[in-house]
Amino acid sequence: MNFSPTPWYSDPLARRIGQVIQNLRFAFRPNLDFLFNVLVSHKIESVVDIGANVGQFGSDLRNSGFKGTIFSMEPGSDAYSILDKRASRDSKWQAFKIAVGSHSGNLYLNVANNRGLSSSILQMSQHLEFFTDVHYQERELVPVEKLSSLIKKLNLDPGRTLVKIDTQGYEYEILKGAESFLEDIALIYLEASLVPLYQNEMDLRILLDFLYQHNHRLIDFSQGLRTKSGKLIQIDLLTSSSQE
Predict the structure, then answer these.
(1) Which ranges of the chain does DSSP label H, i.e. alpha helix?
(2) Which domain holds residue 194?
(3) What does 214-232 look like in DSSP terms, one character per residue?
(4) For a designed S-S bond to 102, which of 28, 130, 171, 176 qualifies (C-beta 3.0 to 4.6 A apart)?
């Protein structure tokens, strides 16, 4: 009797699992134990989650044991609808349908076909080369607010706040929109590219230099997004304004 097992890549379930794993490549997933210890040591009371997608980071914070207030910002309609439902079950988690940038107003968000995980204000560049299955499928006009304005409106203490930024190449614009507050913000956790995945994206060197100019120092980093061939193209940075 001849037995020819079905290759794993031909199995529908395996393909579905593979798609889930591919989508996870684009999700911001922290080291929960380490992050929780940092939140405790810096006495963090609030987290501003910019580019929240469907609330993965907020859920990770809760799973880590964080009991403070979470403010999640997500401009994409489909992702926001899921985020809002998730946040509504938590009395200390608020969701806002808004983008964050260097100025207030309105901009077009390019919505990607991988559940919005690669959506960006910017156009794709090398992202198209590395991930040929990901593309923009529509544009959506979204409101934009400066981070400095949000901090004031939410009445946050910057010295007890962590700002997380995962906005697909738009991180620098967000930092510029909080320039007057940056050195007062306790922690900044953001994604940085080693190669430009989006047009006009600022890479790791520029982001770190800008943060250092505003009294932030790198206290941790972890590997982020890799290409299908294994090349590391993004890392996650954690900076602190504390000199201790």
Answers:
(1) 12-24, 32-41, 56-64, 77-88, 126-130, 147-153, 171-176, 204-213
(2) 29-240
(3) TT-EEEEEEE--B-TT--B
(4) 176
Residue 236 lies in a domain: yes
d(CA 145, CA 101): 6
pTM of the model: 0.84
71: domain CATH number is 3.40.50.150
Task: Look at the chain and report how many structural domains it folds into.
Answer: 1
| Domain membership flag for residue 79 | yes
Reading the block at residue 76, the tokens are 């994409």
* pLDDT tens-digit map of 24-53: 444 445 577 888 899 999 999 999 999 999
Q: What number of residues does the chain have?
A: 244
For residue 183, being part of any structural domain is answered with: yes
Are the CB atoms for 40 and 32 separated by under 8 Å?
no
Given a cut of 50, the residues of the chain with pLDDT beneath it are: 1-28
Are 240 and 187 within 8 A, CB to CB?
yes
DSSP string, 183-206: GG-SEEEEEEESS--BTT---HHH
| Run of H or E residues at 234 | strand 234-240
